[in-house]
Write a structure and sequence with these properties.
The complex is a heterodimer of chains A (291) and B (179). Chain A is mainly alpha-helical and 291 residues long. Chain A has a single domain (2-283), classed as Up-down Bundle (Formate dehydrogenase/DMSO reductase fold), CATH 1.20.1630. Chain A is 77% helix and 0% strand. Chain A is built from nine helices and no strands. Chain A has helices at residues 2-32, 37-63, 83-106, 113-134, 144-169, 177-209, 213-223, 227-253, 260-283. In chain A, helix 4 runs antiparallel to helix 5 (144-169) and helix 8 (227-253) packs antiparallel against helix 9 (260-283). The longest helix of chain A has 33 residues, at 177-209. Chain A is globular and about 60 Å long. Chain B is an alpha+beta fold and 179 residues long. Chain B has helices at 19-28, 59-63, 89-93, 115-119, 125-129; strands spanning 5-9, 38-41, 47-50, 69-71, 77-79, 100-102, 107-109, 135-139, 164-166. The N and C termini of chain B lie far apart (49 Å). Classes of the chains: A mainly alpha (291), B alpha+beta (179). The A-B interface holds A 65-72, 74-78, 81-85, 88, 132, 135-137, 212, 287-291 and B 38, 40-42, 48, 50, 59, 61-67, 83-89, 92-97, 101, 105-107, 153-156, 159. Chain A: It comes from Desulfosporosinus hippei DSM 8344.
Chain lengths: 291, 179
C-alpha cells in the first residue's frame, strides 16, 4: 500500500498542513490587527509566505500519483461530477489566491477579506478531498468519519504549523500579552479539532461493526493489526497538542517568549501522529469488490 | 437512452473453467496483467464471472476527472484511452474491478462489450466461449421474469445499478447428507 500511495498520502497531509496553517495565520492576523497592527503583520507575513511553497510541494507530490503526469492538464474536464476534478481546481485556486493574498499582505494597509476568501477556497479543497473518499466503495471511508478526520487534521496541523511559523519569526522576542492571548486561542482551536475526531471514533467503530462484511473487515483491521499504530497516533497527537497548549499558557503568564525547541518537539509529535493516522486511514480501507 | 444491453449469469451452470476469461484475452489482446473479465469463487462454493457491467449510473464515469468515459446509446460504457492520464480514480471507484490498470502503459482500460464483434452481429467473445451457457446477453428492459437483480457475494448494486441479471442460485440438493 505504502509504496504505491505515498505521493497521495503526502499530498493530503502537506496540503492540509498548508491550508490549516494559512487559515490560522489569517485568524491570528485578524484578531491582532485592531490591537497591534504592526505585530500582526510582522508575526504572520513569514508564515503566510511559507504556505505557498508548501502547497506547491503538495501539488507536485500529487503529480507522482498519476500514471501519465503529463496528462494532468486534462484533470479539470469533469467538474460536473468528479470530486477529484473539484479538488484539483480548488487546490490550484487556493495556490493562485495565496499568491495574491501574499502580495496584498506585503503592503502597509491591507484588509483581511482576501485572506478569508483564500481560506474559504482552502476549506472547499478539504471538503472536496474528503468527498473523494467519502463517495467510494470502501465502507471505512464512506462515512462522516472521513470529513471529521480531514477537517480535524487540517486544524490540528494548522495549529502546529501556525505556531511553529510564528515561533520561528518571534525567536528571542518578548511578545505582548495580546499576542500570547491570540496564540492561546490558536491552541484551543487545535485542541478542539483533535478532540472531536477522538469523540467520534467509537461511533465510527460502531458503524463499521454493524455494516456489511467489508466494513467489518475494516473494523477488524483497525482493532487488530492497526491497533498499536492507532494508539500511538492518538498518544502522539494528544501529547503534542497538550504540550503546545500548556507551553503557550505558561509563557503567557511568565516571560512571554516562544521557546523554539519545546515548540518544535510538540509540532513534531503532532506531525508524526497525523502521519500515522493518515497511514492507518489508507491501510484500513477494504473494498466491497468481488473475489 | 434507447436501450441498455447487459449480461445474464447463471451461477449454477458456471463450472469455473475460465473459458470466458481466455476468450476475452484472445479477442481483445489485453496485456498480461489486464483482465477485462475475471472468474472468482464465491463463499457458497459457486463461481462468478464478472466483467464491466456497463452500469446504468457508472461510478467510473462520475469520478473520472478527464471525462474519458462515455455511455453510448446502447448502454455500453466506453473509455477513451487517449484521455486517460492514469490517476486510477476509476480503478478504485468501481465495485466490480472493471477498469483495469495497465502498469506498462500507465492507463486504465476496460470491457467494450466486444464492440467490433457486436457491429458484425456477433455475441461478445466471453458469451460465445461459454460452453455451459452460464453467460449470455440480454436487453435490460426486457429481462426474463425468473431472474433476480443480485446474488449473494455480488457487491451492493444500489451504487451503480449494474446491467447484469442473475438466475437465483438453487439450494444444493442433498440426498445423503442431512444437516
Amino acid at each position: 500500500m505504502f509504496a504505491e500511495e505515498w505521493p497521495l498520502m503526502m499530498f493530503t497531509l502537506i496540503s492540509q498542513l498548508a491550508i490549516g496553517s494559512f487559515i490560522l495565520l489569517v485568524l491570528v492576523r485578524s484578531l491582532l490587527a485592531p490591537k497591534d497592527a504592526l505585530a500582526a503583520r510582522n508575526l504572520t507575513n513569514f508564515g503566510i509566505g511559507a504556505v505557498g511553497p508548501l502547497m506547491a510541494l503538495a501539488l507536485i507530490f500529487s503529480l507522482f500519483h498519476l500514471g501519465t503526469p503529463f496528462g494532468a492538464y486534462r484533470s479539470l474536464l469533469n467538474l460536473g461530477s468528479s470530486w477529484l476534478s473539484r479538488e484539483i481546481l480548488t487546490a490550484g485556486g487556493f495556490l493562485v489566491l495565496w499568491f495574491f493574498t501574499y502580495k496584498a499582505y506585503q503592503k502597509e494597509s491591507s484588509g483581511n477579506s482576501l485572506g478569508w476568501l483564500t481560506s474559504f477556497v482552502g476549506l472547499l479543497t478539504i471538503l472536496s478531498m474528503a468527498s473523494i473518499y467519502s463517495n467510494s466503495i470502501r465502507p471505512a471511508w464512506s462515512n462522516a468519519h472521513t470529513y471529521i478526520a480531514f477537517f480535524g487534521a487540517t486544524f490540528v496541523l494548522g495549529c502546529a504549523g501556525a505556531i511553529a511559523l510564528i515561533g520561528h519569526i518571534a525567536k528571542g522576542q518578548t511578545l505582548s500579552s495580546e499576542v500570547m492571548a491570540v496564540l492561546k486561542k490558536v491552541c484551543y482551536v487545535g485542541a478542539v479539532a483533535l478532540i472531536i475526531p477522538l469523540i467520534y471514533l467509537p461511533v465510527f467503530f460502531g458503524n463499521l461493526n454493524s455494516g456489511d462484511p467489508a466494513a467489518q473487515a475494516s473494523s477488524m483491521l483497525l482493532t487488530g493489526s492497526y491497533l498499536i499504530p492507532l494508539i500511538i497516533r492518538w498518544a502522539f497527537s494528544l501529547v503534542g497538542v497538550i504540550m503546545l497548549t500548556n507551553l503557550i499558557s505558561k509563557q503567557s503568564k511568565g516571560v512571554k517568549t516562544l521557546p523554539a525547541n519545546s515548540i518544535l518537539l510538540a509540532v513534531a509529535l503532532i506531525l508524526v501522529g497525523e502521519f500515522i493516522g493518515r497511514y492507518v486511514f489508507y491501510a484500513s480501507a477494504v473494498s466491497i469488490m468481488v473475489g | 437512452m434507447t436501450e441498455q444491453i447487459g449480461f445474464l449469469f447463471n451461477a449454477d451452470r458456471c463450472v469455473g473453467c475460465k473459458s470466458c476469461e481466455m476468450a476475452c484475452k484472445n479477442e481483445n489482446s489485453t496485456p498480461l496483467n489486464v483482465n477485462w473479465r475475471r472468474v472468482s469463487s464465491l463463499k457458497s462454493g459457486k463461481n462468478i464471472s464478472i466483467s464491466c457491467n456497463h452500469c446504468e449510473s457508472p461510478e467510473c464515469f462520475r469520478v473520472c476527472t478527464r471525462r474519458a468515459y462515455v455511455k453510448r446509446r446502447d448502454g455500453i460504457v466506453m473509455i477513451d484511452v487517449n484521455r486517460c492520464d492514469g490517476c486510477m480514480n476509476c480503478v478504485s471507484a468501481c465495485p466490480y474491478n472493471a477498469p483495469q490498470f495497465d502498469i506498462e502503459k500507465n492507463k486504465a482500460s476496460k470491457c467494450t462489450f466486444c464492440l467490433p464483434r457486436r457491429e458484425a452481429g456477433l455475441m461478445p467473445a466471453c458469451v460465445s466461449a461459454c460452453h455451459t451457457g452460464a453467460l449470455s446477453t440480454i436487453n435490460m428492459e426486457q429481462y426474463p421474469n425468473d431472474t433476480v437483480a443480485t446474488i449473494e457475494g455480488f457487491p451492493n448494486i444500489r451504487l451503480t445499478k449494474p446491467s447484469i441479471r442473475f438466475y437465483p442460485v438453487k439450494e444444493k440438493a442433498r440426498y445423503w447428507i442431512k444437516n
